[in-house]
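Students often ask why inverse folding is considered easier than folding. One informal answer: many sequences map to the same fold, so there is more than one right answer. In these notes we will look at a single instance of the problem. The structure comes first.
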């Protein structure tokens, strides 16, 4: 019985890794050669697969360990990728980070503040703003109050400076 559970877990992680590898391959192709309808469809299909694979808490932790959360964070900031894909990445990112202490701790100590400039990209893109704020809320929703306070105090000044330069 234990062996069956172990094999099932390995298979699930293998599917996560394959999906991540395909997303990496497709995003690299778009960044180098530009978007095509086929690539965009493949990206969205893989994101649907990923969302399904990440339906349990352990999957989010395993996906984080294999670099998936960093991938989502990095690529969400790439403006040459299709907006619909970036929206989806931020939504999945939000779901993974929400209520997952392991993911939150990893993100709070790694440059998740790269999401903040996305808020300044297009003042009229409320869909993007909603997803960025949701991702930030999910990350900062953890239990480490002292670390969150320190982060927020340092970043509020940066954001205030960025917003005042727009006006």
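Output (designed amino acids):
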């Amino acid at each position: 019985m234990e062996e069956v559970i172990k094999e099932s877990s390995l298979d699930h992680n293998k599917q996560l890794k394959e999906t991540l590898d395909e997303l990496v391959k497709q995003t690299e192709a778009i960044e180098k050669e530009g978007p095509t309808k086929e690539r965009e469809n493949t990206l969205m299909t893989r994101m649907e697969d990923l969302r399904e694979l990440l339906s349990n808490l352990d999957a989010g932790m395993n996906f984080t360990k294999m670099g998936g959360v960093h991938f989502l964070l990095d690529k969400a900031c790439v403006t040459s990728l299709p907006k619909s894909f970036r929206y989806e990445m931020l939504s999945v990112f939000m779901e993974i980070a929400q209520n997952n202490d392991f993911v939150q701790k990893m993100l709070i100590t790694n440059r998740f503040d790269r999401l903040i400039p996305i808020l300044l990209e297009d003042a009229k893109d409320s869909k993007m703003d909603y997803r960025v704020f949701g991702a930030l809320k999910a990350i900062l929703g953890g239990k480490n109050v002292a670390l969150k306070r320190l982060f927020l105090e340092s970043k509020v000044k940066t954001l205030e400076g960025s917003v005042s330069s727009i006006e």
